[in-house]
Amino acid sequence: MIKLYYHPSPNPAKVALFLEETGLEYQLVPVDTRKGEQHLPAFTSINPNAKTPALVDGDAVVFDSNAILLYLAEKTGQFLSGDTPAARAEMLSWLMFVATGIGPYSGQAVHFKHFAPEPKVYAVNRYDFEAWRHWKIVDARLADRRWMLGDRYTLVDMAVWGWARAVPFVLGADAWQQLANVKRLLDEVNARPAAQRVEALKAKHAYKTEMDDDARKAMFPQNARFTSQGAA
Ligand SMILES: N[C@@H](CCC(=O)N[C@@H](CS)C(=O)NCC(=O)O)C(=O)O
Fold first, then answer.
1. Omega of the bond leading into 48 within 30 degrees of 0 (cis)
2. How far apart are CA 116 and CA 110, in angstroms?
3. Which of 44, 112, 170, 225 is the most buried (most CB within 10 A)?
4. Which residues contact 93 (CB under 8 A, 6 or more apart)?
5. What pLDDT does 227 receive?
6. Using an 8 Å Cβ cutoff, are 87 and 148 in contact?
7. Are the CB atoms for 30 and 7 separated by under 8 Å?
8. For the CA atoms of the chain, what is the radius of gyration?
9. Is the CB of 8 under 6 A from ligand 1?
10. Any ligand 1 atom below 6 A from CB of 7
11. What percent of the chain has pLDDT over 90?
């Protein structure tokens, strides 16, 4: 059976959504990142990048959420774009835009706004600016089409949904006033039974929620340089 290495956060959630949408059977393996479980050899042998999600399907091992979405879409033949070169080019462009833009800039905006120590004005300005710029591109894309690729709900919408749930935390409580089309997509996906089942996954395991010193050590290993080099 498929094993999904999971933490209830944006990148793993989009993969859980795909699995729930298709009804594929899977076993959820919790990886408690605030407890440092992403660094255990049992997990890094599956994902050397030590981040959730990862997925094992027989002898196939896949990590990175958007790679997993594409793997599952190709495996099942579901939630793909059309298969002309032009349709596939459009799908790959937007999927990679989410993978390399929406995810990283949103994640870094969260890091610098909510977790980084001062001084951080420069970093907050850069990542807030870039996160907004990326989300406005998605919003403009959705201004005249129901879904990211047009009329059909695809893996790209699932990729967007994973991070759209976090938009107020990324951009601020009133962000939806400027991203009405993204909010529409979020609401539409949230209304689907599969999304509600993903929401319920949180309660299936007691994940650590405190961002204490141990969690910071596990999640922000770069900070060890300050103490080891005597810079802090
Ligand atoms: N590019 C990766 C990023 C994965 C990622 O950053 N996952 C977060 C959860 S959303 C994580 O596991 N963080 C733990 C850590 O950074 O130590 C993907 O899309 O899967």
1. no
2. 9
3. 170
4. none
5. 81
6. no
7. yes
8. 18
9. no
10. yes
11. 97
Residue 54's pLDDT is: 98
CB-based burial label for 174 (10 Å; 0-12, 13-18, 19+): exposed
Please tell me whether residue 8 adopts helix, strand or coil conformation: coil
pTM of the model: 0.97
Ligand 1 pocket test: pick from 51, 110, 222 the residue with the most ligand atoms within 8 Å of its Cβ: 51
Q: Which are the contacts of 227, defined by CB distance < 8 A and separation ≥ 6?
A: none
147 beta partners: 150
Q: How far apart are CA 142 and CA 213, in angstroms?
A: 41
Instruction: Report pLDDT for 229.
Output: 62
Strand, coil or helix: 24? coil
- Please indicate whether residue 11, judged by its CB atom, sits closer than 6 Å to ligand 1: yes
For residues 159 and 16, is the Cβ–Cβ distance under 8 A? no
